[in-house]
Amino acid sequence: MKYRRLGRSGLQVSEIGFGSWLTLDEGDLDRAATLHRTAYEQGINFFDTANQYGLGTVESVVGASLEPFRRETYVLATKAFWPYMQDWPFPGANDRGLSRKHLFQEIDKSLKKLRTDYVDLYQCHRFDPDTPLEETCRAMSDIVTAGKALYWGVSEWTGEQIEEAVSICEDAGWHRPISNQPIYNMIDRHWEDDAFPSTARCGLGNVCFSPLAEGLLTGKYADGTPADARAADERKGQFIRRRFTEQNLDKVRKLGQLAADLGVPLSTLALRWCLRREELASCIIGASRPEQIIENATAPDFGWDEALEDRIEAVLG
């Protein structure tokens, strides 16, 4: 496994990270433990989750799965923004967003579920237009000062929002964000002209989620949806099904043929394509089986050159 610095910080994260969105919310501790151990043994040191995953249940699964490993050997990240106790009869007015109240409330809950005294990276899961940005920046900086997180970052923020947050922190002498977590893959490239230039200017690293477009870029959906696939599930498949356009499926088929000609899985080609960007520190994968993790962990070793990139761009258009 190879590692990259996260932005201008000294934090080193594995080029392949392991996430828990949509894959670990059944509460199967044995399966989750096996998947985390497999990732750890492959040299993956970056584990990402969020307080909202599984309506608040997944952090406990991740915490139990990572407990056997020495805390200093892995980088643990979580996020806050969304409400997650959706079965409450009377959800609280402050149970969402990036207010100081909500952030301090959620970091303590997360630490308890994750069975740790601190997280390495605490992330704002989305931008909050209803809370002054100064309040959010001060709260996140104070969480770092308190030792509950070592660094803080953002997810799916625009370039303008990122630059404003960095400016506020630098002017006030607060801890500044070190990372951004955008969606990024061969199908979803809209951040290339927005957030990526801003993170480069401001010294933030990017840890992208859905680098395989929820499995679309493995080729498994090129000829239809398998009955046991995530896309066949009414809830879990709600996001990926939006990508099932004929244009996207045609690209996947052509990319699959290119990968076959190169003698590698399409997932390897898709992950290595993401990692061609210097702005990216890590690609966060999800998995339901250990062999998927083992396959994905080899992607950074696949050779890359401009000629191959040109061939891929010809397919992507």
Explain this structure to me?
This protein is α/β, with parallel strands linked by helices and 317 residues long. It has one domain (3-218, 277-303): Alpha-Beta Barrel (TIM Barrel), CATH 3.20.20. It contains ten helices and ten strands. It has helices at residues 29-41, 58-66, 100-114, 133-145, 159-172, 195-202, 246-262, 266-274, 290-297, 306-316; strands at residues 3-5, 12-14, 16-19, 46-48, 75-80, 119-124, 149-155, 179-181, 205-209, 280-285. The strands form two sheets. An eight-stranded parallel beta barrel has the order 3-4-5-6-7-8-9-10, surrounded by four helices. A two-stranded antiparallel sheet has the order 1-2. α5 (159-172) links the parallel β7 (149-155) and β8. The chain is globular, with a radius of gyration of 19 Å. It starts with a strand and ends with a helix. The model has no long low-confidence stretch (mean pLDDT 94).
Note the topology.
Layout: E1 3-5, E2 12-14, E3 16-19, H1 29-41, E4 46-48, H2 58-66, E5 75-80, H3 100-114, E6 119-124, H4 133-145, E7 149-155, H5 159-172, E8 179-181, H6 195-202, E9 205-209, H7 246-262, H8 266-274, E10 280-285, H9 290-297, H10 306-316
Parallel strand pairs: 3-4, 3-10, 4-5, 5-6, 6-7, 7-8, 8-9, 9-10
Antiparallel strand pairs: 1-2
Helix pairs in contact: 1-2, 1-9, 2-3, 3-4, 4-5, 5-6
Give a quick rundown of the structure.
By secondary structure, the protein is α/β, with parallel strands linked by helices. It has one domain: Alpha-Beta Barrel (TIM Barrel), CATH 3.20.20.
